[in-house]
Amino acid sequence: MNHAPTAPTAVPMVPAGEDPAALRSTFALFPSGVAALSAVVPGEDGPEPVVLVASSFQVGISLDPPLVLFAVQHTSTSWPRLKAAAETGTRIGVSVLGEAHDLAARQLASRAGDRFAGITTTTLDSGAHFVHGAPVWLECSVHSQSPAGDHDVVLLQVHSLGGAPGTEPLVWHSSGFRTLTPKVGA
C-alpha cells in the first residue's frame, strides 16, 4: 500500500479582514440551528413578549452547570430588553425551531409589526416564552456575557427543559433555511 504524501490541491485563500462579503459568505456555509430567545418583559402598555432569533446558538457548552451560548450583535434592540428583564429574575425561553417554523423564524426576526401574530406560544410563570412545536425548549438565566468584536457572547444557564422530541430541526445554511434529510443507506 502506498502512503506517499500527495501535493495538496491549491485552495485560494484571502485575508479575512480585507473582504467582509467573502467572510460573511464563507461563514454562511456553516450550517447551524435556529433559536428564538424570548421572554415576557415590562412594556409601555403592560407585559409584552420580546424575542431575538439567533443562528449562533450552541448547546453542550457545559453539563455542570448546564450551559448553552449564543452571540448577539451590539446593534440588537431586543437583547438589552431581555437582559434587563433577566437581571430582575425573569427567565429567557429558548425555542430551538423546527422544520415547520421557517416562516415563523422570518417573522420573529423581523423588525416591524407584531412578531408573534399567528404564532402559538406558551409563557411560564418565570416569564420564559416559548414557540409551540419546537423540538427543544430551554428555560434559562444569564450566566455571563463577554464582548467579542461587534458581538457579545452570552452564556445561558439551563434551569428546565422540554420540547417535542421527534420534531426535525430547522437549519440555517447558505443564507437560507434548510431541513435535514436522512442519508440513504444510513
TrEMBL record:
Similarity annotation: Belongs to the non-flavoprotein flavin reductase family.
MF annotations from Gene Ontology: FMN binding; riboflavin reductase (NADPH) activity
Annotated Flavin reductase like domain residues: 27-179
UniProt entry keywords in alphabetical sequence: Oxidoreductase
Organism annotation: Kineococcus aurantiacus
Keyword Ribonucleoprotein: no
Superkingdom assignment: Bacteria
The protein's name in its UniProt record: Flavin reductase (DIM6/NTAB) family NADH-FMN oxidoreductase RutF
Pfam families in alphabetical order: Flavin_Reduct
